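Students often ask why we bother encoding 3D structure as a string. The short answer is that it lets us treat folding as translation between two languages. Here is a chain of 275 residues written in the first language.
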Amino acid sequence: MNSTNQKFILAGVISHCVSLVINIFMTSAAMLGWPSKSAYDSWWTTSGFCVVQESSIPTELLCCLSLTTSAIISYALTKNNKQLKRDNPLLFERIQTSVFANAAHGFGHAFLWFMGEAAPPLEISLRPAAIANILMLIAFWVGSLKNVVGLPTDLAAGMSIVVLAAQYALRVPPELAFTYSQSVILLGGTFEQLRRRDEYSKKDGFLFFAVSLYYLPLFVLYFSEMFFCSKSVLAELGGHAVYDLYLALVPFGFYYAVTMFGRGDKTSNINKKVG
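And here it is in the second language, the structure alphabet:
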């Protein structure tokens, strides 16, 4: 491992560890209503994310539009792109995983808009609606844990039951279902990156570092939604749609940063050899 790659890996590990601490702290605060439930913005507490009230275009549909559009473009970018797969296999894999993640996330918002409420409560019941909700959540978690966290299908299926059992045991209210899901996905994504750091150190330390930075703005946006949703520029920009627009643009940010950095690095190496 060259010194530059080593520095990127070290910086990425530090950034991932910071993300872990922030994630646990913010999720715990939201679940416990700390410092007080009255401190949270009313638009946020209604749905668990910043839904702009009386908007001409529903926040959920704006989220769905940006995320599904990103998924379609990412799919087109990676489909039959042999050069990207050959030159930047980890970047190729990263963009591919965003296809499912963003599509599932986007359609989830469309589902909530169609239902006209926050996420349905998780309940153990033989009612058709309860069974359908559990089956939908299992499918979502199997896909998320397989594509985002990198688990094999059988392990992802088992872990999806664990995630839902924990959600039920903790009695996570419907309005905090997004917070719970976000926390699990970000935790899983962070651990997946740390688990594979040796692989990144051999192939692309810069991408490892870039992915570690990607989580940090999410916490800033999440904090803003919790406490300033209706009292800040977020209300004018679409509320939670800003958070999801960031997620939608991230795959292309990775693509640009890694391909441009790699190109510059190769050019630098060529110049050194010529000199």
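Translate back mentally: The chain has twelve helices and no strands. Keep this in mind for the problem set.
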